[in-house]
Design brief:
Elements lengths: L1 E6 L12 E5 L3 E6 L3 H8 L8 E3 L5 H4 L1 H14 L8 E5 L3 H11 L10 E5 L5 E3 L2 E7 L7 E5 L1
Parallel strand pairs: 3-4, 4-5, 5-6
Antiparallel strand pairs: 1-2, 2-3, 7-8, 8-9
Length: about 150
């Protein structure tokens, strides 16, 4: 496994991006997508349009907000610039499907992506992405909230 820390700060920090991790195994996976992590992803040279899985530990802004810009970029790339990308799987804790249905319905043009998008909710057990095993664990500061981590 090769891990690149894209950010480890919080929402607004003078020198660090918020939570975001690029995990490279047999798959290229993003874990969390906080503010300013997209800019750091671009600096890695990884083709952002080839990423097939994004995992969210939870949906606080410091773990999620750059996804909106990332997804908007993917829509522009595929709809108007002639680009193609593989299907995108978004994995998160309980409530992920409802969260994204609401988000996409609210943002103009997000409901009609020219590529497949799959949503997967996970909790209470490990799961595989290719040969990469990820597991969940309960969060101590919010009842019923589970987070994800690569194993």
């Amino acid at each position: 496994m090769r891990l690149t820390i894209l950010g480890s700060g919080t929402n607004i920090h003078p020198t660090r991006a918020a939570s975001g991790y690029l995990v490279r195994t047999d798959q290229t996976i993003l874990l969390d997508f906080g503010p300013r992590t997209l800019s750091n992803l671009l600096k890695t040279g990884v083709n952002r349009h080839r990423i097939t899985h994004i995992l969210f530990s939870h949906y606080h802004a410091d773990h999620f907000s750059d996804f909106i810009t990332y997804f908007f970029d993917a829509m522009i790339f595929t709809k108007y610039q002639g680009g193609t990308r593989p299907p995108l799987t978004v994995i998160g804790p309980r409530g992920t499907k409802k969260f994204f249905r609401t988000l996409f319905a609210t943002l103009p043009g997000f409901t009609e992506a020219p590529f497949a998008i799959h949503f997967k909710e996970v909790a209470d057990r490990a799961f595989m992405i290719g040969k990469t095993k990820a597991s969940t664990y309960p969060r101590g500061y919010a009842s019923g909230l589970h987070s994800l981590r690569p194993c």
